[in-house]
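Quick entry, no commentary yet.
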Amino acid sequence: MKANLRQPLVLIASLAFTMVAAAQEREAPVKVNVDGLPSHVRVRILEKAQHGQTAVIRYLQRTQGVHQLRAESVIREEIPAVVVFPGGGEAATHGHAGDLASR
């Protein structure tokens, strides 16, 4: 009788642990660049983007052989550009490099 109860209890415990682990993996949505992609690929990437960067990367890795997309070309990084001048000074830019010449 004990052997009959052990298996369902182990199954329930492992399912509960899996659900807790999955709940902790939630990430913030990520901005993606889907310009020029086929509509079915665009929809899937936008769907994965709502689940975070890891979901987008996993999708791109799974479909690498078919779509040949890299995470660097799809995921938008919100990092401001920084230009370092030879004298050691820095200037943050938000436009084109030509904008610095007018400063």
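second:
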Amino acid sequence: MRDTLADYQVSDAQKPFLARVQNYKELIAEVGTLREEMEWTSHNQNRKPSLDKSNNYDKKPEPIYKQAAYDAYQQLFELKEKAAKEILNDWDNIYHMSPGRYSS
């Protein structure tokens, strides 16, 4: 059985940390989706349906950095990296607030 957020109690002090992790998760999904769309477009941009299959797939795909959506992808990627750094910078604070943590 998978644990869900409903299976845990999150204190008010921990809620900002949880919000950062949820934001990071959403950014990963957005970055991944946009990357997949750009790769699909790159591979299918110059291909037209034809009975002669040899002509369709000889062309190399256009690099994704040449696509119009690349700037948005880059911005989302940078936001994701920033969110990850914020989470890691606060990692010790999260650990010390965790109920039931093992003491050393």
